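Appendix B. Extra example for self-study. Work through it before the problem class; the solution is given directly after the inputs so you can check yourself.
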Amino acid sequence: MEEPRIGVYICWCGTNIAKMVDVEAVSAEVGKLPHVVLAKNYKYMCSDPGQELIVKDIHGHQLNRVVVAACSPRIHELTFRKAVEKAGINPYLFEMANIREQDSWVHTDRTEATSKAIDLVVAAIRRVQFHEPLQKRSVNVDPATLIIGGGISGMVAALEIANAGKKVYLIEKTGRLGGHVIKFDLTFPHLSSARQMIRPILQRVENHPNIDVFLNTEIRDVTGYIGNFKTTIRINETESTELRFGNIIAAVGLKPFDPSKIEEYGYGKFPDVITSMEFEEMLGTGQVLTKYGKEPRNIAIIHCVGSRNKKYHEYCSRTCCMVALKFVHQIRASLPSANIFEIYADMRAYGKGHEEFYALTTHKQIIFLMYDQQERLPVISQADRNDNCNMVIRMNEKLSGESIEVPVDMVILMVNMEAHENVKEVVHAIGVSLCGNQFFIEKHPKLDPVATTTGGVYIVGTCQGPKDIPDSVSQARAAAARILATIATGSVAVEVTTASTNEKLCCGCQTCVKVCPYSAISYNEEKRSSEVNEVLCKGCGTCGSACPAGAITSKHFTDRQILAEIEGIMSMSFKGV
Amino acid sequence: MPSDTSNPKPKIKLAIYWGAACGGCCVSVLDTHEKLLDIVANADLVFWPIAMDIKYKDVEAMPDQSIDLTLFNGAVRNSENKHMAEVLRKKSKIMVAYGACAYMGGIPGLANLYSKDLIFKRAYEESESTMNPDKVRPVVQFEVKEGTLSIPEFFNDVYTLNQIVDIDYFIPGCPPQSERLIEVFTAIVTGIGLPPKGSVVGALEKTNCDGCLRKKTDNKLIKRFYRPWEIQDDKETCFLEQGVICMGPATRGGCGVRCVVGNSPCRGCYGPPPGSPDPGAKMMSAIGTMIDANKPEEIDEIIETIVDPAGLFYRFSLPGSILGRKLL
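Solution. Structure tokens for the complete assembly:
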């Protein structure tokens, strides 16, 4: 290894860092360390003159390693890597120390913050000495796209891509396209017909020359990596065509919660306690009738069934409040004199036009009754023979504080949206992660909501979390745009800081194979060694830390680099044992 | 190796010594059986307390660098071990840390989970077989009318040999396999194939799974851990896949996987593979990925089934690990 010649730059970040960290003291202190050729501080390292300073010093002082102590590497690591590269040094021979978010912003004692900054910079200086140059790589992108799920989000995404002239394979587990939306009667808040909206989309999808629709179809395994995936689809549970594609969209949706596990509501026991999905279907027939074919005089709509309750699902399903209000309009239209009770826990009307819709609904002569989700759920029981109703709901009305009985002939349960049981198969096949509620996890909750941590795999619609039609459609179009961008470019950059196996050390214990979240590791029986597919690898480091034989190296996160960093942290002000 | 005693080549001078050790390493030299004669044919044993009556003062009187090869087994636990390590280093051309204790601290090194005071308290006051109402404890020097009696000072920490003196080679094992000793001895006598100073010799680079004949898959998902006696071993499946912690994947090969062949999991006496900074941490990290649970409470429950993790993962290596000792 050539003698390290390190340049260290301490950023003031205006006053963001300089007011809490004595930047002069930091540069003076770290300037004394071995291999540090120069240590400077500057007002804004990320500015053009700041970056120029680095470039000039690399040339002027023959630096071969650079450390910048500034903000989070999430913000400017790329900026400085580019600056270093501009001066002819491999961008990975650079290390960043975060003395803003992890120091100046979170401390109030200037002396201690300064000494912490020194520790962090020393750690980076120790680490950068063991950095190795890494080379950028890219792969070509197959222009076809696989879309899993033929609901509204899957179909919209398919059309968006197909209209741009690119091939789409749309696979649907059931025998028909349209998902849940095709089962709806009206949509909120404009009370327009769901069918009239979705039918033309469906027809365009079915007739589009660039879309191949596969019904009753499932996938088991997807192999390959961004730009170059392949799978063998299973139609009617038999192996069928092999498909090749460059990107994947998962649009597998959610399913309605089964309320029979909530004893209080007696679903399954009382024939006229039905779910919101069952009521949608009833509305499709044009008549609201009890199981005995009578017009109900009293109808209750219970909100948050399976939602916002630790016993079932803690999250809010986001759409049910508005659907419940929509039902009021539909019931009122067919049964002008019925009593309608909205039994709610909280009214959530956050979307565009939703609050107005709520206000409009309150004029429909309905009774709002509030219950406390945490205290006690309403209880449905059979009415006495003398009562003038089918069932009775006993509840503590929260606003009045009184225990009341509500007479009902029909109860609609606004059921939660929850994950499919078999979602894990898809998850495993395409390499995405699930959150605690079994929703697919996006790459970044705010800035990258449709991508996943697996390159070339996108998630749209309700599989990412409960949402309404406009949100699902937005995601579908967003994912399509992302995919079309990679197809237009023709190639994508792949991760550089990957893991690799040393065949000389691998003992074949196969501990690494299962831990890889990207299915990038396989065991080669012949070589008796594990192998990392470096295109699939995202450099998460899980295998490197799991490998008991020390045979897997995570590039840019080697044991030597990490230990050097820890030794650096411990070397200066740490006065422990 | 030629056993022809008429070989004009001068014999090398060989010393074998023990520090904090059980004696097993010395026995492993005897376990070379008839090959011992080859050793003796090529070497003059100048110092070997287990077999020969030579006093420390005789060794101290030897000229510096006069011993060609010293095999030092045992850890450094007291001032006597340290003194002899220093004397032998000075007198020897090549000094080898022989066996797990000299190399990594070994079983005696587990005493670093306690302090000298706690150990003395247990040994001289609390143990079930101790009657010591006056709480008498050993002292380094004691005056009697005949003069001053002294015993070695017991250190607070157990050290590896390399933490006390500079070491040329390391031979792992508890004890090292005798075949490996012959190979290394031959290499040293002939000077052929000697690796760079500081190397681990008499062991492989790959870890033990490589030579293990049990069936291994990637299905290492563990719902609870078992100690070997708690489970009916099927004698063919990877121990880890049966929930028994086996140090095989994190332990250098070279022993012939003898423990596993004898249906006992690997305990890790051959130490970590090259480049592994800490054998215990590596294995714990690997074990972490095998726990088949997602809920924190469930994970805790499964981890609870690992009895004595420090003694399990650092059975032979605590003083030489990054951990070093328990902070008390």
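Self-check: Residues 12-108+157-200 of chain B form a domain with the Rossmann fold fold (CATH 3.40.50.700). If your reasoning did not lead you there, revisit section 3.
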